[in-house]
Amino acid sequence: MSESSNTKLAPPADLKALGDRLVGSWTVSGEAEGETSWEWMEGRFFLIQRGWTRREGVEQKFIQIIGYDRMPGSEPGDEITGRLYTNHGDTLSYVCVLEGDTMTIWMGEKGSPAVYHGTFSADGNTIEGTWEWPGDGYQETMTRAHE
């Protein structure tokens, strides 16, 4: 990719909106507990999430990269995707959509039965959400940590 074509790219507006809502540190409580944080990668084309959670006695540490898939010289994909890597050796893929105050995250592909629905509070400092999948699921609350 030439330098001139690189200057034409701008971070997508919907990814910027998602990052504007998430960037910072959060505490996770409810049926899962833990801590997580989001930050922009330089250039603001990707969000980096790091954290840990504990659910049903199992602790998991993770890192996730969130953004649009794009091969050099091509147009970005149609969806905000995430790839999450755990200390247990798992690689998980997600599709994320933010509509108003509602964040929906599907595991795998959009429309999957494994889905998270979360709602931001009016002040943006709390996300109440539920992960659901066939036969299981859990509720969690993420609260922005004020530093």
Topology:
Elements: H1 3-6, H2 13-22, E1 24-30, E2 33-40, E3 46-55, E4 58-68, E5 80-86, E6 91-99, E7 102-107, E8 115-120, E9 126-133, E10 136-144
Antiparallel strand pairs: 1-2, 1-10, 2-3, 3-4, 4-5, 5-6, 6-7, 7-8, 8-9, 9-10
Protein architecture, described:
- The chain has a single domain, classed as Beta Barrel (Lipocalin), CATH 2.40.128.
- It is globular.
- A hairpin with a 2-residue loop joins β1 and β2 (33-40).
- It has a ten-stranded antiparallel barrel.
- 10% of the residues lie in helices and 55% in strands.
- By secondary structure, it is mainly beta.
- It has helices at residues 3-6, 13-22; strands at residues 24-30, 33-40, 46-55, 58-68, 80-86, 91-99, 102-107, 115-120, 126-133, 136-144.
* CATH fold-level assignment: Lipocalin
**In terms of per-residue confidence, which ranges show pLDDT below 50 for 5 or more consecutive residues?**
1-6
Percentage beta strand:
over 45%
Q: Which percent bin holds the helix content? A: under 10%
Looking at this structure, what is the CATH superfamily?
A: Calycin beta-barrel core domain
Major β-sheet profile: 10 strands, antiparallel, barrel
Overall structural domain count: 1
- The overall strand count is 10
Which strand order does the major sheet show? 1-2-3-4-5-6-7-8-9-10
The separation of the N and C termini measures: 40 Å
Question: How confident overall, as mean pLDDT?
Answer: 93
Radius of gyration: 16 Å
The helix/strand series, from N terminus to C terminus, equals HHEEEEEEEEEE
Looking at the structure, what is the overall shape? globular
